[in-house]
Amino acid sequence: MQEEQGTTENLIDDGAEGPADGWAWPYLAGVAALLAATAWAFRRRAEAAFLGVWFFAILAPSSSLAPLPQQVAAEKRMYLPLAAVVTLVVLGGWAIWQRLARQELTAVPILLAVALAAALGARTVARNADYRTAEAVHWAPDFAEARENLARARAALEPSRPAIGP
Hints:
Layout: H1 25-44, H2 46-59, H3 82-102, H4 107-129, H5 134-139, H6 144-157
Helix pairs in contact: 1-2, 2-3
């Protein structure tokens, strides 16, 4: 398979060898717990399970249980399924707001919303720095494959520049 030069998606390597190494088990357990919670909610109240079914039904066609070597960092697969999570957070926030409004504590949810927006905004800015250049993508991890990909990215951008060193 030939890699495209200048794109970061095909050059990213997170160092994971595979699920057999044990790194995937906690994540698999988390997904299994969410799937079980969705099934439980579906049996109790189908309308309560809608968001969970929405999340898994949209995510399933683009996912696999084993990592795909050509797309290790495919965060884009989560964009549409996360709309279900955002909907759940908004509906939960609205329910909390209504409950606190009855107790005349409307300043609390406003302060929480502002604090949450500031924290998420700061995290977004920090995460965007990881993707500012092909070099930045490969510099953070500390393993051989990432260093090799960094050298390839540097060679593609500036063939006269040394491919090793900071």
